[in-house]
Amino acid sequence: MKTLRDRYCIVGVGETEYSRNSGRTTRALAVEAIRNAILDAGLTPRDLDGMMSYQNNDSTPANWVAADLGIRLNFFMDVVGGGSSTEALVGLAMGAIEAGMCQTVAIFRSMNGYTEFRIGGTGARAAAPIRGQDLAQRPFGMTSAGQNFALTFMRHMYEYGTTSAQVAHVKVAHSKHASQNPKALLKERVTVEEVLASRWIVKPLHLLDCCLETDNATCLVVTSAERARDLRQRPVSIMGVAGRVSKPRTDFHWAHGPITRVAGYYAKDLVFGQAGIGPADVDLTGSYDAFTFTSMLQLEEYGFCKTGEGGAYVSSGIIELGGKRPNNTSGGHLCEGYTHGMSMVIENVRQLRGTVDDYCPRAAEGIHTYDYSPGRCRQVKDAAIAMNLGWSMPPTGSALILRK
CA within 20 to 30 Å of 319's CA: 48, 170, 238, 301, which one? Predict the structure, then answer.
């Protein structure tokens, strides 16, 4: 398989505060996040000549944001999409640089996901005209992500005996990680019993099985490995990427293949083939947690455990800090803030650099205790390879493998 392994790097990351009331436009949020990523990389705005974003008619175009930063672009693109976009756009940025269209690309996602366009079936989205797949789904009450995905989650429980209590450990683990994260919106640790006692949203999802809704902007900067060597931060190399891989159908995806099958089934050979490694080589994961079940299903489908054993995997302690392969060490979408996948790549970049922000006394110096007791460390010891598993819906996904 032809690969661009290690020829491109993520050299800068940045974000705004994760809040439920930004009081700002998506344009202003994007400018702040991109500026933070540029400064993180040790670049200036004039060093960027490419910019990409993704949105769902809820944000500001890249070329408008670039003008606010004083950047003249040789390449820009805005993509419509959600949770599978981050990893896909990293791959597209690599391709644009490889083709000679630009040299350094900023990728951003800016959203007022709580005060303006909420993800669920309420607010501005619910008021939008009915079209496309909605014509088939709305009569059955399938207007939100949870309602759409619940069919896959319930079938997994039926086929393999997966329990809500097992999957609740995803929320428990991510809440522990968030409690060590100064940026996290929700820092309170929860128990399995508290997850199961929270009210139903749509079976099998309780309230605490569901992600946050937040206002924020996030950014990554991608450039060539050659250029990365001269920049401020330790370059994080891109080993492999798979972008927006799908099942045979993306609407009624259960018509082809098991309803429990998610797109990672098709993406894993692409991304692991490019990277030249397997699941056992990965030290930490960032598995998209729109819901507890989405993390579990992807970890299973990408081969971190056998088919049907996802519930046992996530409840074994392996995904917690101090476990063999921690997942979403920032707290993820369940606890840190909902960013449509970008923040989990940002977290893994910082993990590989050894620069996560936690409550270790000397964290600002990059010195960590690896004490994972409450209110202490969340830096993974000796982290060398990280993987991100992007999710848009069961039949669509993306993946990214990084190394220090």
Answer: 238
